Amino acid sequence: MKLLLVIALLWAATAQAFFWGVSNSAFQVEGSPKPSDWTEFIKKSGTIADGTNADKLSGFWKNYDKDFTYAQQTGMNTFRISIAWERIQPDAPSDTGSYTWDDEALAHYQKMVDSMRAHGLEPFINLHHYVLPKWLADEGGYLSEHFPEYFEKFSIYMVRHLKNVKFWITFNEPNAPTLQGYRTGAWPPGIKDDPESELQGNANIIRAHRRAYVAMKKFDPNLQISLAHHYRIFEPKSRFNPADVVMSSSANRIWNLNILDGFLTGGFTLWTPGAEIIREPKPIIHQNISKFLDFLGINYYGRYKIRALLKKPNVALEEGPNEKSDLGWEIHPEGFYEALKFCYKRYNLPIYVTENGLADSEDKLRSKFLIDHLQQMQKARDEGVDIRAYMHWSMTDNFEWSLGQKPRFGLIAIDYETGEYKPRKSLETYKYLIKKYGYK
Ligand code: FCB
User: Fold this and answer.
1) How many Å lie between the centroid of ligand 1 and the Cα of residue 182?
2) Which of 71, 169, 230, 389 could be bridged to 76 by S-S, CB 3.0 to 4.6 A?
3) d(Cα 99, Cα 315) in Å, to the nearest integer?
4) What do you get for the CA distance between the two ends of the chain, in Å?
5) CA 352 to CA 18: how far, in whole Å?
6) Residue 103: is it exposed, middle or buried by C-beta count within 10 angstroms (0-12/13-18/19+)?
7) What is the Å distance from ligand 1's center to 366 Cα?
8) What is the overall mean pLDDT for the chain?
9) Span from the CA of 9 to the centroid of ligand 1 (angstroms)
């Protein structure tokens, strides 16, 4: 009997509870942003579709307790936030190589983490979610030869000083800011059609992750570290058109596999039409490190249908036939199952869903979206995929980058005039679903 009790206690202590929660990011919710590439970009006319900015928003910087209280009441047990690098390190390192850190900003994030813990929420801390301190952007941002070193210093400062955090994400969607910054030009630095820089940026971000991972693990081998990759499903527009088939598989390799393989192994082969291939061999393994990810963070938003074109840019990305969100993004829950199955099979790492959601200002589609996506996730789990978290994007409405404040992704609506929080009915649906699926 005693033995059974000991076994049960041991099991309870080691068993991993399933994490239910939400994700947000500093720039998109905090308000009162410090100088960064994004604050500069927003100042230029015509960069943000609805002409809004990130000055006020939900005011998460001060109101975080409100979010955590709602999270707890909904039955959540995790919350993913990001750290504004520009708050922690507002100035460039000196010429002699000394770094200055803002201790007050750090203490503030510590209060956030403590509050999460007090609300029963496991903190997931994201170190980089698209935004660069202004001084770093001025030095060339992702293209600066010092970028990997700067990022490593920032990461190690954070893990040393921010206590009670086990789960860390180095980069959110690493290939998004380089695509948007150097190809579409929709995000800072606003450069168009420069695939060479896009690839150089990706390579530097992988190097930065690699260095940060090694330093962080050296500090504490128990930390769990990953990226949050935007996994997209690519399908040929017509399965009977060989050009569509080839282009779709190539898009998958460029967007999903090259980046994920690079983050996992530390070595990479990156290519994209119009740019030279960049190859870097797998680095020599450091201190028992055989890979550079402990789990896989997956953001899932949908699929693209790929149509090959005879003229440049060679492909068109089209939405599929299903119902669309306010942004015209197709809702495709089956793709979620497919993404989870594929990633687990290929990478054999536990999966934490770090984002999934939709813009739906009237909350007409969100409840069904949640029901259908969680059903697909459960199907994957029933078939043996080791999924350990689901974090919805997002708790509150937030600043959707170059699309501004108009898209509404929140389970809670924010009245940007008064600052009022108004829970949408889908928050209740999420509460019901968390209860239905439970924490195992
Ligand atoms: C993801 C981003 C997040 C938000 C959602 C809608 O790709 O990580 O910041 O913009 O899309």
Assistant:
1) 18
2) 71
3) 45
4) 25
5) 10
6) exposed
7) 16
8) 96
9) 40
